[in-house]
Structure formats: C-alpha cells, structure tokens
Amino acid sequence: MFKDIIKMSFKNLLMNKMRTFLTTLGIIIGITSIIALITIGQGVTSSVIEQLSGLGGNRITVEITNTNVRKGFTDAEMESFLEIDGIDGVSPTVRKNLVYTLVPGETKSNYNYVYQSATRVMGVNNYYFELVANDTIQAGRSINDDDINNATHVCVLGYGIWKNLYGNYNPVGETIKILNMDFVIVGIMNELVGLDTAGNYSLIVPYTTAMRDLQMGLVKTFDAVLGDSGDMGIVVSQMEDRCAEILGTTSGYSVINQQEVMDIVVTITDLILGMLGGIAAIALLVGGIGIMNMMLVSVTERTMEIGLRKALGAKPSTILVQFLVEAVIISMLGGVLGVALGATIAYVASILIGYKFTFQATTVLLAVGFSVTVGLIFGILPARKAAKLNPIDALRAQ
Amino acid sequence: MFNNRRVILSMKGINKSYPMGESELQVLFDVDFKVYQREFVAVLGPSGSGKSTLMNIIGCLDVASSGNYVLNGRDISKLKDKELAAVRNRDIGFVFQNFQLLNRMSALDNVVLPLIYARVPGKERKQRAMVLLNKVGLGDKMLNKPKQLSGGQQQRVAIARAMVTDPSIILADEPTGALDQATGAQIMELFKELNREGKTIIMITHDPKIARQAGRVVHILDGRIYTQEEYDAKYNEEGLVREEEQSEITARNRRRRLMNV
Asked: What is the CATH number of domain B7-260?
C-alpha cells in the first residue's frame, strides 16, 4: 500500500507541475547553498592547511617586526638558535633582485649572445625544498648541508625561469653568473603550486652564500623546525629569550608557533562557514515554510477528496502518510537537485579559485537527510490537518 | 416476511444529538431499524427529517449518541476511528448524489481505490474493478476520466466502486438526485437488478416515486422512524397529520370541556 501511496503522491504533484517546482525551489536554494558552502569551505581549508603544514605543525616562525630595532639576524646569530634543545634545524629565506648573466660557451641557453637580466635570488637551505617542493626535484639535486657549511657557489633553477631561459634543455653542470660571480647549476625545481610559488621565477642559492658573497642582507624572518623530542611551549619560550638576548630588547620581534597559525585559520574558516551555514539554514527554513504553505492549500483544495477517501475506507493514518509523503517527495526532490547544483557550483569555483575539489558522500547524505527532515517537520501540520478532517463535513465541502 | 432471513443491520434505541451552544439539538429519537439480507429498503423523508444523520450513522461516518448498532454481526457503537474506516471499507459501499469521483483519475482507477485501502494486490485489484465496470455497462470506457462521461455513466462508475469490495450493504444517498428522469430510471433499474442478484441495498431519498421502487419503504420524519403502515395511519400523502385524527382530537377535547362544565 505504501507503494500505491507514493504513486498517488507523484500523480498529485505532477498535476500541479509549476506549483510543485516553485515550492521545491526554496529547498533547492537552501540545499544548493549548503552543499556549495561546505564543499568550497572544506576544499579551501584543506588546501590552506596542506600548504601551511608542509613540514607539519612543528614549525616556529621568528620574525623581526620592527626593523628600527634591527634589520635582521646574521647567519651566525640565527644558527645559534640550533643550540636550543629540541630544535632540529632552521630554515631561513633571504630574497633580493639581482642581475644575472648567461654567457654562450659557459651555458647553452636559448640565447646565442651574452644575455643579461635581473630576477629574484633566494637564499635558502634544504628545509626550503622540503617545505615547498615536498623534497622532490625535476633534475639534479637541491641545496644540501655541505653547500651551507662551505657557502658554495651553486644554484637551483626555478621551474619558470628554467623554461624561459632553456626551454626543455637540461643545463645541470653548466655555469650562470650572478653579480658576475660564477654559480654552477646543480638542479631544476618542479613547478610549484599552492601558496608559496615565489620559487618558480627565482634562482635558488645557499643562504650562507647569499648573505656573505651576494650581500643580500640579514635574515628578517626564519623558521625553526622542532624535533620529535622538543616541547613546543618550552622551545618557544627559550627562543623568545634568545631573541631578547641577541636584540637587547623585549619588543620588535615575534616568535609564532605555526600550529597556532593553523588553528587560527581553521577557527576563522569554521566561523565563516558557520555563519554562511546559518544563512543557508534560514533559506532551508523559508523553503520548509513554503512546503507547509503549499500543503495547507492542497489540503483545503482536496477536502472533498479526503472525505471521499475516508468514506471508502482510508484510515486517518493512511491520509496522514499520503500528505506527509507528498511533502517529503517535494523536499527530497529539492535536496537532490540542490546537491547536484551545489556540487556544480563548488566544482566551478574550485577551477576559478584553484583549490582541490573534493566531494564527500557524507555531504550528500547530510543534505538529503536535511531536506527530508525539513519535509517531515513542515509536512506534519498539513498532514495532521488532513487526517483529522471529519468525513461528513469534508464530503459536504464544495 | 423476512423472518427466515438473516438480519444484516440492526439498530436499537439510536439517539443522536448535536451540541448547539449551551443546549443540545436532538436529531434522532429512539430509532429502531432492521434490514435483512438481500433487502432493498428505501428510507424516505423530507429534508430536515434526520435522514442524512441516519445515513451517516448507518454508513459509519458518524456514531450515535446512544443506542445499539449491529452491522453484519458486529457491534459498531464503540469502534474507534480507524476501525470504523475498516468497516466502511469492507461492509459498506457508498453511492452519493453527486457521484464523488476523483476527476483526475480514470474510471478504472476510481473503482480500484477502495481495494487499495483494503490492501488487495495490484493485479487482482484491476481484474475485480474491470469485472464490475463491465457489469455496469462501461467496459469500453474504463480509461475515461469522469469529466468525459455523462452523469448516468459517472453514477455507474460510482456504483461499480461501491460494489468492488463486495460489501454487506450498498448505501445510496439520493442516487438519482443529480440525474434526469430517464437516466435516473436506468440507475434505479440497475439497483433493482443488483438487488435481484442478492445485494442488500439501503437507499435514502426524499422522493416517494423513487422510494416506491424499493422492496420496502421506511419513513423518517422529525427524527422518528415509521413503517409504511404506521405512517399511513398517522399522516396523509402530504406528510400532514390526517384530518380524521385531527377531528378525533377535537371531539375528545369537546367532550372533556363538556364534562368539566
């Protein structure tokens, strides 16, 4: 009999296609926004976290915030942080735009004449490659500890600058001039995607070489990498002490636990998602009221039919179920269409914004479950009204 | 004359009153009513006589305020809503004055409807409905919507629907009320034929000409029920108290007055 009720409900709803569609629209809008928001939110959050946590939540960023106190740390000062128990390494980045030269004979570039230009030069160590490139490399090798200790004149080409200068040719082992000093090309990076893509158009050299030979200045900011044995709280406070010691002041610098940054990002995105979710819930509420309204009209219109059905033997519960099923069909229809539409919007957004599109089955279940619940909640009042109708009065209605 | 037949419907001391503000309006007074199996009974009464209320109680659409109602061997007086629904479904076939067909369904689907509530399987439902539509002469119009049928044809569909659950009684409320003379006569013929085949039919009407075609006529007036004999003795054709009785009353009064003097 339940099958028959569903069939009847579909027939009834198809009788008023326009009205059914317009009623469904409220739910479609609600579910669409919920799906789109959840999917976009999850995608963006996971992309941001993935990039922030390149080395996990075990990084502590030291930054000179007031350059009047000091322009930065020297390499020796920075390396003194390694003495703190629990710190495995430091990962500095110094940047400066410098002139470089390609000389035919020394390297086989796209240019058959002496080519001179300027680009960003980055002084880093091996942690940089771990963080931005997941320790992978297109060709050759990355900067290693020997390069740092000996301040060797080696350089790794960013993916973009390599393409511009060499096309697909592999120049590893050849020489490029930076500020008229010879640097041996030891590797080519993979193309970087995500938050930190500065390396794509950079020449990457050991930070010791950058600071001493290329005069690229002091280290304004660097990350310390916490070892497995280190306690975050203790290490952070020791690092603050060290900063105060070096700089001779207790202000003008910051020591930030990356995990905190990540937590803040998550908190903020959760907050925004929550607010948007609230708006979507209001849309759903309005949609639900729309369903209730339409079902009440439907009950009034079909009073005689309800009376007749009761006279022919329909129990109050049967009538209740029939009207409830109609409400749920409308809301479920809205839910399914909303999921499709919301996923499409999220997919398009993922292409436009450039985050990873992930779609979870739980989201669909959640949305459809939500819409069915809305249908049940807002359908119960009209359905009860129908079920309670007195057959004599109902049959007499015109 | 029907004593050797089974009683299918038996009412004893049925009263029905409706609350009217502070007081109550009594519509049925101490109604005793019996219908035997295979009978064709007409309940005849003018509007306001309480015949609709009686029909609603017979049809289990309403319950009596007091009294006893046994239908097909079952005491109906104390059943709940959902049990009454089952009784309506199984034991009563309704035929209404204005047909009461669902316009968006085909004739066939209209006839099938009571069987859905009786939880008859889909295939059997269709077969049974088709048999009955053929019986009422609409075998070629099963898939028509009610709007595509004439009034007489619509009432035939309604009769098929009333018959489809094979109920104990067919309860017809002014079945010819919305039809012209000729069509009404055809519908009456159909009822008589069904009765000859063994159906118990109770017909409510205000029209003496229609009522006379039934096997037995029961009168209802001002909420009280009378057999034909009782009614004839008390009322004339217009439903007014007979003159002989009137004059008897006046004669008695005159005598009383004389004695007092």
From this structure: 3.40.50.300
**Number of domains within chain A:** 2
Cross-chain residue pair A313–B119, CB shorter than 8 Å:
no
Domain that holds residue A85: 59-257
Task: State the number of CA atoms in the 13 A half-sphere of A203 facing the CB.
Answer: 30
| Predicted ipTM of the assembly | 0.88
Is B136 within 8 Å of B164 (Cβ atoms)?
no
Angle, alpha carbons A149-A155-A160 (nearest 5°): 145
Summarised one tens digit per residue, pLDDT across range A270-303 is 888 888 888 888 888 999 999 999 999 999 999 9
- What residues of A are in contact with residue B162 (Cβ under 8 Å)? none
Q: Closest partner residue to A314 among B94, B117, B161, by Cβ?
A: B117
Instruction: Give the residue from A96, A74, A84, A100 showing the smallest Cα distance to A208.
Output: A74
Q: Which of A1, A304, A317 sits opposite B116 (nearest CB)?
A: A1
Contacts of B122 in chain A (CB under 8 A): 4
Q: Residue A126 and residue B122: Cα distance in Å, rounded? A: 75
Tell me if the pTM is above 0.80: no
Residue B169 pLDDT: 95
Q: Which two tokens stand for residue A359?
A: 């779609």
Same domain (yes/no): A187, A131? yes
For B60, the closest chain A residue by CA position comes to A311
Instruction: Name every residue in A having a CB less than 8 A away from some CB of B.
Output: 1, 4, 11, 15, 304-305, 308-318, 391-392, 395
Are the C-beta atoms of residues B8 and B74 closer than 8 Å to each other?
no
Q: Which chain A residues touch B116 with a CB distance below 8 Å?
A: 1, 4
Q: Are residues A152 and A40 in the same domain?
A: no
Chain B CA closest to residue A318: B117
A300 and A233 within one domain:
no
Which residue among A209, A236, A257 closes a domain?
Answer: A257
Whether A44 and A142 map to the same domain: the answer is no
Within an 8 Å CB–CB cutoff, is residue B62 touching chain A?
A: yes
Does residue A221 sit in the same domain as residue A106? yes
Tens digits of residue pLDDT in A58-114: 788 888 888 888 888 888 888 888 888 888 888 898 999 999 999 998 889 899 999
Task: Select from A257, A291, A307 the last residue of a domain.
Answer: A257
Q: Which of A310, A322, A323 is nearest to B82 (CA)?
A: A310
Domain boundaries, chain B: 7-260
Residues A240 and A129 in one domain: yes
Amino acid identity of B64?
A: A
CB pairs under 8 A between A and B: 57
